[in-house]
Amino acid sequence: MAGNSIGKEFVFTSFGESHGKLVGAIVDGCPAGLPFSEVDVQADLDRRIPLQKPELVSGRVEKDFAQIQAGVFDGFTSGAPICMTVENKETNSSDYEAIRDLPRPAHADYTSRVKYGGFNDPRGGGRFSGRITVATIMAGALAKKLLSQFDVDVMAYTRSIGKIRTEKQLGFDQIRNSRYESAVRCPDIACAEKMEDDILEARKKGESLGGTVECIVLNVPAGIGEPLFDSLDGDLAKALFTVPAVKGIEFGGGFSLAEMQGSEANDAFQIQKGKVTTATNLSGGILGGISSGMPIIIRVAIKPTPSIAKEQHTVNLSKLENAKIKVSGRHDPCVVPKAVPAVEAAVAVTLADHMIRAGFISKIIKRKE
Amino acid sequence: MAGNSIGKEFVFTSFGESHGKLVGAIVDGCPAGLPFSEVDVQADLDRRIPLQKPELVSGRVEKDFAQIQAGVFDGFTSGAPICMTVENKETNSSDYEAIRDLPRPAHADYTSRVKYGGFNDPRGGGRFSGRITVATIMAGALAKKLLSQFDVDVMAYTRSIGKIRTEKQLGFDQIRNSRYESAVRCPDIACAEKMEDDILEARKKGESLGGTVECIVLNVPAGIGEPLFDSLDGDLAKALFTVPAVKGIEFGGGFSLAEMQGSEANDAFQIQKGKVTTATNLSGGILGGISSGMPIIIRVAIKPTPSIAKEQHTVNLSKLENAKIKVSGRHDPCVVPKAVPAVEAAVAVTLADHMIRAGFISKIIKRKE
Amino acid sequence: MAGNSIGKEFVFTSFGESHGKLVGAIVDGCPAGLPFSEVDVQADLDRRIPLQKPELVSGRVEKDFAQIQAGVFDGFTSGAPICMTVENKETNSSDYEAIRDLPRPAHADYTSRVKYGGFNDPRGGGRFSGRITVATIMAGALAKKLLSQFDVDVMAYTRSIGKIRTEKQLGFDQIRNSRYESAVRCPDIACAEKMEDDILEARKKGESLGGTVECIVLNVPAGIGEPLFDSLDGDLAKALFTVPAVKGIEFGGGFSLAEMQGSEANDAFQIQKGKVTTATNLSGGILGGISSGMPIIIRVAIKPTPSIAKEQHTVNLSKLENAKIKVSGRHDPCVVPKAVPAVEAAVAVTLADHMIRAGFISKIIKRKE
Amino acid sequence: MAGNSIGKEFVFTSFGESHGKLVGAIVDGCPAGLPFSEVDVQADLDRRIPLQKPELVSGRVEKDFAQIQAGVFDGFTSGAPICMTVENKETNSSDYEAIRDLPRPAHADYTSRVKYGGFNDPRGGGRFSGRITVATIMAGALAKKLLSQFDVDVMAYTRSIGKIRTEKQLGFDQIRNSRYESAVRCPDIACAEKMEDDILEARKKGESLGGTVECIVLNVPAGIGEPLFDSLDGDLAKALFTVPAVKGIEFGGGFSLAEMQGSEANDAFQIQKGKVTTATNLSGGILGGISSGMPIIIRVAIKPTPSIAKEQHTVNLSKLENAKIKVSGRHDPCVVPKAVPAVEAAVAVTLADHMIRAGFISKIIKRKE
């Protein structure tokens, strides 16, 4: 066991359950002397809920409040482990016993029961709830604050919902400024409206939708990433598979590269303003597991929410016989909008770790006085 | 730094350079009492080179010989670290100085020079050569031997080369028995021939091709994988990004799930012969980061070999000016066939680690007498 | 940075500061299905303060209350990370600014200021306070509960205070039952009284005392400990150096073995009731870094409390000139009594980790129903 | 399992067996650009055998030759894992089967057999032989070369053998220059002669002797060490318990501090030549787990060699009955002289790791050209 920590220098430990007392994050290894407060965390936490259109997500839209419990002193990180928590408030879990034996298809109900011998907290999905991303987002807020001191900019947005995909060439500024403008977190506003319609349509039918999220990271210096196994792409992938419902990941040209010829796929090097850059960026900013200095480009595939109103086939685990289930309660018809800040956070946490590991961020941001 | 080890219980450390003395693997944490010898390693090593058609790969087809240097006693693993090495023989590196300043596009030449301040061994790609998969394959051979005691079966094959993709529904037995029959490692023999033609055609044009590899793992029990961060899919992804040229990864339905509706994507649970299974397997055998007991299905995208005979644009790193390069020497026009055993090895190493971590493999296979 | 976690399977992370909001412990990797509640934690927490004679310790005797924040469900560990906290109540820190520039001799004031660039929380010693053992004791309470399922019994006691040492041959039952009877945690009651007198005498003189603590662990099976580096003695030593003021550690005969001859030092093996035991136990239950099945015997040396009322020489760090300091405030004239439960906890946490690592404790205590 | 690596940045993995093909060390994470060659390793390796008086050690005095197998290119570390090996030559293991069932008292024979289910390599002690320090010494030679770039000086010497102890106040220069002059590695030459006599006397009687080794480290800057658990003293202790036969460790005043009063034990701070120092150094250069800038002072207790010619009581493990054993073959009557370079190496490896972790050594020593 013991898989709830990630990172080697900027070590993030996630704890808490969906319907328990709280959800929390501890970061050990954040350099001392970084200005940091609850305001920094709250900003990212608020991005989880698309208040523009709460009907796009489950009813659970009550605001989460971040609290820093340790590791920050007089407005700066102190070098001690930083603990951040959010209390759970909407935790009406009265009915979980009834469905304990009926695992929801495509959920972790069955696998977690097997793994933990039936002792895992099943209320609201326990540790397997999308709510656990609250911890990731808090750690990500700290990581972003740290990265921002070095001009590193992490920004994710919704690229597709179901079959609707933005085909517009979106500029970095547009993505940065508009990605949280629409409830679906797609900066192409015309496209966003179609996405919203499709989500509401799916909900009406008792269905759900998936989609893809793209994340772009600007200003990562060349030389970040530790071969062989702690490669930048390998560690980003590992971190991103913790965002619930992610089933695929690609960098730069990704799967499309498999169909190209070498001369099409290779990014030519060129000198631009005295710096080494590439003419194209099909490598997505990573070569040999190490950042090249070009923007890092990541795309993840998110499956449709497993919880749907339609009746489904399942089994009764106690009786070992076939059964049917209708998943009741509040459910997001599409988790992609909530995944956007979680993707940003997972990427930021990984980059903060690797920037420190590669020696680009020192152990003390700057000495006091 | 220090990223050359992977795993928490079955810990694999890779060392050696492409044109140095040797390439080697150390595995610490392999249970004691596993029958193991050089024969086991050699079998998998031999699968790297498609002897059926050596023209599909670079000229470097001399056989690699595996040696066990430590950790095996009287035919069984002893509980001590297991060290396996292969000597490098074909290491004509006379000309690397000439191109030191001209990074090959889409290679790690530039990023590794930045990262190691110019001290990295550039001969034949050094640590960034495809040859480093020899170490992975040796560790994988040990992992497979261990997994085979528990009937776990890891098998990868070429699913596509460039635009040629096998669309046949391949049975598990066919994949197991025929995957190394064709030089391109595609068990659909008709398709394999087309792939071979395309590769030779690409070579003739000074081009290269990529492709996709699918890996299927049978008989992994339900309950393997450590949430949150050491999830089975996360750790498999991390390990697979060490196979050179991998740019994308997906599990089960992968990216296609992003376009489905919930009722299409959800695998219904059912009882089959008294066991919990699912009617479909779009989850690829993993739910919530934990194995479900269904076959694990992984697909990786491999970009075309960066080394092509065609002239390309690059830069001169000393003069910081634009330049041109024609990559000479021996190069695989397509690395996909060589990636197949490396993918199997990376998957096997990860599963061995996780089977031990989850308590499914004990620290001693069985006590002596 | 990032050194606030210990263990590979039973991973304990400590957080919080002496005068911050709270002190907390997270344990990731505790097997699921262990009965556990706040009552278990409280019992050990209460042993920190020798209520029999509060004048032996600092004035800070207000009771600490343990809260389980996550990881326990319906009275059993759930397999999720277990978070336990204690709020800080007595945190009158008004005067720390005054002494910021005057490091207390033999304290961490100077080294922590250098390490964290002046950003560390200095209030009450921050992360370097003896109060941080509260976190260790909470993690230790969980570890002890786990170990108790396997009859492993961890018991420490005060062996000497200053120059007063118990020379009585104490039986295991006496140690188990009487170690917390006296305020100084010495089960030899006559000796305990002398120790108490000496501590009060030292306080009167503005002085402080150190001492030694012995820890005995019964019923650890043979075969625990991972050579080479994660040896049982090596990992116990590492854990024990986190107990404040520990400056030495020895196992079994320890330093006295350095003066013996082989025939005196070697513990002869013998069969007792069909089991392999040794006639003597100068090895302290550990051979080659692995438990032998005999009681584990550890002794630690604890220096006198650095905070004393007497005037001492120090420096002014801002002015870089010599200075004098009189440490005011509440201070323990002897930290040995408080160290006893902390030593037990550090040992228990290490053993829980190693019992799991060696495969003696499985990942699920027992399956539900 | 998997305990054969140590360190988080400068990661040393030990492999090989006493009578197997070789003994080896891999260091992952050594900065690139450090000048390093086999000459550096050989110098320290040669210090294992006191050629002045080979009769003080076992007959095995054939010279070990270090080979660098990977990680060094053109005379500098390349940033890749560094692999160093020594072949075993004197490996006459014909008779180990005879004594397999008769564990030698105070050896790891019994505990290793239990741990590895009888599969461990028993020849010459296998992984539990003193010969395994060859790997530590090779890694230590690399660490020392790295530390020497920052003027850090690690020097150990024999402080006592049996009841003979040097009471002379030895200067740092004398220790540095004379510690390998005498066969027993004691720079107090008059004392060294008495030690040698006592060892030869013990051998004649079929006995063995232990002793103590002191290690002093100069010029470690203040601020090294990661609280709470990766403290400098904790990590040094952990590393030192891998030196065979170590049963105790203390820093600075160590166990004697337990009997002092605060005013005696506290090292007063003072300004010397504009730097913060302490008037005494009973803390041994470490406060709160962090280096203070004063010399680090460590003392370890080494038990007498367990292998003695005298007949001893043991058990027959197959028959589970009492038995007797006379350990034949070559044995050191005292391992203390061989422990001296091993102690230096263990300390150097730990300091190299912590200097990198604390940010005092960067990832590239200096960029090429």
Distance between the termini of chain A: 44 Å
Bin the strand percentage of chain A.
15-25%
Low-confidence stretches of chain A: none
Total count of domains of chain A: 1
Helix percentage range of chain A: 25-40%
Q: Quaternary state, please?
A: homotetramer
Task: Indicate the CATH topology of chain A.
Answer: Chorismate synthase, AroC fold
Q: Output the strand order for the largest sheet of chain A.
A: 1-2-3-7-4
Described by strand count, sense and barrel closure, the largest sheet of chain A is: 5 strands, antiparallel
Largest chain interface and its two residue counts? A-B, 104 and 104 residues
The count of β-strands of chain A is 18
Tally the helices of chain A. 9
Summarize model confidence as the mean pLDDT of chain A: 94
Tell me the name of the CATH homologous superfamily of chain A: Chorismate synthase AroC
Shape of chain A: globular
CATH architecture of chain A: 4-Layer Sandwich
Q: What order do the SSEs of chain A take from the amino end to the carboxyl end, as H and E?
A: EEEHEEEEHHHEEHHEHEHEEEEEEEH
What does this structure look like?
The structure is a homotetramer of 369-residue chains. Helices cover 25% and strands 23% of the residues of chain A. Chain A is an alpha+beta fold and 369 residues long. The first copy, chain A, has a five-stranded antiparallel beta sheet with strand order 1-2-3-7-4, with helices on one face. A five-stranded antiparallel beta sheet of chain A has the order 9-8-10-16-11. The first copy, chain A, has a two-stranded antiparallel ribbon with strand order 5-6. Chains in contact: A-B, A-C, A-D, B-C, B-D, C-D. At the A-B interface, strand 1, helix 3, helix 7, strand 11 and helix 8 of A face strand 1, helix 3, helix 7, strand 11 and helix 8 of B. Strand 11 of chain C pairs antiparallel with strand 11 of chain D, so a sheet runs across the interface.
